[in-house]
From TrEMBL:
Gene Ontology CC annotations of this record: plasma membrane
UniProt protein name: N-acetylgalactosamine-specific PTS system, EIIC component
Lineage summary: Bacteria, Pseudomonadati, Pseudomonadota, Gammaproteobacteria, Enterobacterales
Membrane topology: Multi-pass membrane protein
A Pfam family it matches: EII-Sor
UniProt keyword annotation of Nucleus present: no
Amino acid sequence: MQMLVIGFFAMTAFTMGKADRYAEKADGAGISRLLIITLIVRSLLYALVAFVTVYFGEHAAQWIDENTPKVLLEGLGIGAKMVPAIGFAMLLKIMWSKEVAGVFFIGFVMTTYLKLPIMAVAILGASAAALYFFFSGNNKNSSQQNEDFEDGI
């Protein structure tokens, strides 16, 4: 199934150019149509796989798995392993600045060398951001008024 999804995403990559043209024209309806069409096609792909698996049974799915060319499976496997790296590179291209460079490298060291899970790094990062926010003085109300101490609350 994952192989089909990756293939589907590769085949629908051309829609990004069309979405960009719709965005330049501020055509929200066009973008919505494009998204709905791709979601319908993807849903039909899922339905087709589910139907074929149920109708023909486990033996047909096993036959397809065994007779799929290994070169195709290896190529899709390599492509699937590249997707997170490409996504991270795109994220860095958008967010990169001198101010956050150190944070990215700290997170990289924590996951790569200290072998911390991504969730642990995310929680530590969110905690550090909250501490910075509360102790840097950026948490003041816009009115800058101090409230009185009332009834112990």
